[in-house]
Amino acid sequence: IQISLSANLFTRTGYTFAGWSTSSGSDAAAEYKDGADVKSLSSENGVTIVLYAVWKAITYKIAFNANGGTGEAMAEQGFTYGTEQNLPNGSYTRTGYTFAGWNIAQDGSNTTYLADNPVKNLTTEDGKTVTLYAQWAPITYIVRLYPNYPESSSNEEYKDQMDEDLYERVKKEYPDENVDRMGMNPFFIPFDLKEA
């Protein structure tokens, strides 16, 4: 007697249903399609036949966006759900910044993935292209300003006034920067200008 198999109602995240098999192993091949007509599954009377769902992992691609950086465009990288792969370090550069990894969100608000580290399962949608955006960390440096007092100067009030004048000029020229006075000998380094 020929019958039609019931339609599959099972789901598995990151996988597509490939059919049914009489074997339960993870490497079992699909023997029957969904809803297939079957007959003569057993020659024994009254036996229960168990069919196991066969699952195929989805595949997807990752594209790499320079996100303000420059350099030769990077090739997309293919992934299979459930399998780890290392992300590339990338060929992009950005003046004044260091590369800080990859993120699904352009503004870095999602998880950041470090280069040369394994990732997996960035999507559950078969055939999707996931874009990762380069993340950039601004370099930091210190500009030290020397008032260059005359060597013969010994008037501390004069030195203090020079320090103050220099400090105010820098604050005015760099209003958005963090300018800190330092408690060091003003003859050498009256303050640092820190720029991030």
How does this model look, in words?
The protein is mainly beta. It has one helix at 156-173; strands at 3-4, 15-21, 37-38, 52-57, 59-65, 77-80, 85-86, 97-103, 112-113, 118-119, 129-138, 141-144, 178-181, 191-195. The strands form 5 sheets. Strands 6-5-11-8-9 form a 5-stranded mixed β-sheet, with no helix packed on it. Strands 12-14-13 form a 3-stranded antiparallel β-sheet, with helices on one face. The protein has a two-stranded antiparallel ribbon with strand order 1-3. The longest helix is centred in the last third of the chain and has 18 residues, at 156-173. The termini are far apart.
For this entry, give a set of tags.
single chain; 196 residues; mainly beta; five-stranded mixed β-sheet; three-stranded antiparallel β-sheet; disordered C terminus
Report, as a whole number of angstroms, the end-to-end distance.
Answer: 78 Å
User: What would you report as the Rg, rounded to the nearest angstrom?
Assistant: 33 Å
Question: Which sheet architecture does the biggest sheet show?
Answer: 5 strands, mixed
- What structural class do the secondary elements suggest? mainly beta
Helix content: under 10%
Tally of extended strands? Answer: 14
Strand order of the largest sheet: 6-5-11-8-9
Number of H- or I-type helical stretches:
1
Helix/strand order: EEEEEEEEEEEEHEE
Quote the beta fraction: 25-35%
Mean pLDDT equals: 82
Gross morphology is rod-shaped
Q: What low-confidence regions span 5 or more consecutive residues with pLDDT below 50?
A: 183-196
